[in-house]
Each structure stands twice: as C-alpha cells, then as structure tokens.
Amino acid sequence: MRMLEGRWKLVILFHLFGGRLLRFSDLERAIPDISQKMLIQQLRQMEADGIVTRLVHHQVPPKVEYGLTAWGQSLCPALDALLTWAEAKPEGTHTP
C-alpha cells in the first residue's frame, strides 16, 4: 500500500490505465491541480516501484512518454473494485 500512498498517485494511475501512453504535458493538462514538482516526484516514485515506465524517444525535441508496466496495469481490477465499493456507501453514513 505504501506504493500507492499520496494524493496524486491514484489519479495518475487512472489516466494511464488501458495501455495509454501520455507525455508529461498531457498528464499536467489532465490533472491541473498538481504542481510540476509533485507530478515529477510521483512519477519517479512509481517508476522506481515498477508501476510506471518512462519511455524516452531520442529525437529533437526530446519526447518522453509515461505508461504502466504490466504489473501496474494489473492494478486496474483492484482499483475498479475499490471505486465500486466507495460508490456503494449507504446514504446517511458519515466518515469521522
């Protein structure tokens, strides 16, 4: 669970699910409330944990894309189940 801690990691993962490859600027536009520094930090942590892959295309200007590793993609069913669970919260209950 430590690998998924933080405010932004799950948001980033949802944007990368389905085999999508996104450039850094695409992720910035998709998640406007995250700072560049935080996005870089979260991507680097997930890359180090083996969840995200960083694909560098050697061209001018440089092009870098981020996607999920096979292991990262395997998180999709678990996170879908978590969303379903959260949406099923009974009315009238509150969180402390």
Automatic annotation (TrEMBL):
GO terms for molecular function: DNA binding. It comes from the Bacteria. Keywords: DNA-binding, Transcription, Transcription regulation. Residues 1-94 form the HTH hxlR-type domain. InterPro entries: HTH_HxlR (IPR002577), WH-like_DNA-bd_sf (IPR036388), WH_DNA-bd_sf (IPR036390). Pfam families: HxlR (PF01638). This is HTH hxlR-type domain-containing protein. It comes from Aureimonas glaciei. The lineage of its organism: Bacteria, Pseudomonadati, Pseudomonadota, Alphaproteobacteria, Hyphomicrobiales.
